[in-house]
Amino acid sequence: MLRIIGIPLGPFETNAYILHQQDTNEAVVIDPGMNPEPLFQALGDMQVKAVLLTHAHLDHIGGLGLIRERYGCPVYIHEQEQEWLTNPELNGSLRWPQITGPMSFAPAEHLLQDGDELELIGLKLSVLHTPGHSPGSVSFVFDKQCIAGDALFRMSIGRTDLTGGDHAVLINSIRTKLFTLGDDVNVYPGHGPATTIGFEKEHNPFL
């Protein structure tokens, strides 16, 4: 049985997610954010097989070095943001010096494109390229669940004033990619509580 565990991390309260197959004790981590100690506590003795990144902003990648060191697992990111892992100016870690130092990590082992299908821990995950918040933002969809990063929130959308952000592109991503999913699809955002596609279609004031 699959469990989806959300853990808010760091000063931005960024949601890290664990996809945990209880029968095999295997896990995938999505967006290991800053100050990842609560994430490691939740993982316990799980076998982490991969780290997936919805995008490469500092608050979503802050724990990347530690989780790689601990589990030796491969990292997946959209090809447009491969350089962001190594470049503190692009990933935004130079923007908040009062919160963190410059972040630079080794490149990802796997580069994603729109339409990719990943098979991990017995799951089939579809990759949707959902840019706008950042150029390489992606959402991961499986079994009527969607990990949406900072594209779509409950009653809100991602900010577009950071490097590569574009409001019109974000709205198009939500309408043409996310809103074409079923109304009953659960959305797990990068910040705040979960929602559904149907709820956001009806109530989101930005859309």
UniProtKB/TrEMBL annotation:
Q: Which Pfam families match?
A: Lactamase_B
- GO terms for molecular function, please? hydrolase activity; metal ion binding
Catalyzed reaction equations: 3',5'-cyclic CMP + H2O = CMP + H(+); 3',5'-cyclic UMP + H2O = UMP + H(+)
Q: Is Transmembrane helix among this UniProt entry's keywords? A: no
The Metallo-beta-lactamase domain covers which part of the protein? 13-191
Q: Which UniProt keywords apply?
A: Hydrolase, Metal-binding, Zinc
Q: Which SUPFAM superfamilies match?
A: Metallo-hydrolase/oxidoreductase (SSF56281)
Cofactor needs:
Zn(2+)
Task of the protein: Counteracts the endogenous Pycsar antiviral defense system. Phosphodiesterase that enables metal-dependent hydrolysis of host cyclic nucleotide Pycsar defense signals such as cCMP and cUMP.
Q: What is this protein called?
A: MBL fold metallo-hydrolase
Say which species the protein is native to: Paenibacillus agilis
